[in-house]
Design a protein that fits this description.
The chain is α/β, with parallel strands linked by helices. It contains 9 helices and 8 strands. The protein has a single domain, classed as P-loop containing nucleotide triphosphate hydrolases (Rossmann fold, 3-Layer(aba) Sandwich), CATH 3.40.50.300.
């Protein structure tokens, strides 16, 4: 799995990019990298990298998040400190970008610096079990909208096919034809597949470039539903 100096995760609302960004930052830190992660999502206050502040601090990962994140005053403002991720080239920088094109507008102020350096991975997080991206063509449309809003081209795809706590290895394997078609349509490679650690263990040797994840706790945790909805068929 290739690692660029700046890695950005973006995708449709609820695609799981925040979980991936946190786990990827921890992954880099465990390999001795000097890592900083920034929460650039000014649209959705319910899923924050700050929810994992303790784990990130213990791993030596610098966390940059909006001043009022995880409070009852969640203002849509980005911290000035986030510029350090594009200016300090000794860092491995991870950026969690807001969902869809509205969330990606905040990326525009950093895009010129990132493009100038040219050492970045802009990863589209795809989950075919989400309602509005059940077909590769729908995911491609979201991808193009984010690119236009943020000013950066996507360079790779992350397969984050999941059904939350009901995800199975089969659910991930069933998503492979979808990801192959999205790769064909976009001309981008599938960079990695992310899965909760126990599911990733089952997939070991069957899926390349796995990122095992510990699912992030949420500050605004909603009560668990008694039964999750049955998965609907996806592409293929």
């Amino acid at each position: 799995m290739e690692h660029k100096r700046v890695t950005l995760f973006a995708g449709h609302y609820g695609s799981g990019k925040t979980n991936i960004a946190v786990n990827y930052a921890l992954y880099l830190a465990r390999r001795g990298k000097k890592v900083a992660i920034a929460d650039l999502d000014i649209v959705n206050p319910y899923f924050r990298t700050k929810d994992s502040a303790r784990e990130l601090e213990e791993a030596g990962v610098d966390l940059i998040s909006p001043q009022f994140a995880n409070s009852n005053v969640d203002l849509p403002a980005l911290p000035a400190e986030a510029y350090r991720l594009v200016e300090d080239r000794s860092l491995y920088a991870v950026m969690d970008i807001g969902g869809d094109d509205r969330g990606a507008y905040a990326l525009g102020r950093y895009a010129p610096y990132i493009l100038e350096e040219g050492n970045f991975q802009m990863a589209f997080v795809a989950n075919p079990y989400r309602p509005l991206t059940r077909r590769p063509e729908e995911a491609l449309e979201v991808m193009r909208e984010i690119e236009a809003a943020g000013g950066l081209p996507f360079t790779a795809i992350v397969n984050n096919a999941n059904l939350a706590h009901e995800t199975t290895a089969k659910a991930v394997l069933d998503s492979i034809p979808y990801m192959e078609e999205l790769s064909r349509l976009s001309g981008l490679p599938v960079w990695m597949t992310s899965a909760e650690a126990t599911v990733a263990e089952e997939l070991s040797g069957r899926v390349p470039d796995l990122l095992p994840m510990v699912l992030q706790a949420k500050y605004f945790d909603l009560p668990e539903q008694k039964r999750a909805p049955k998965p609907r068929p996806i592409f293929g």
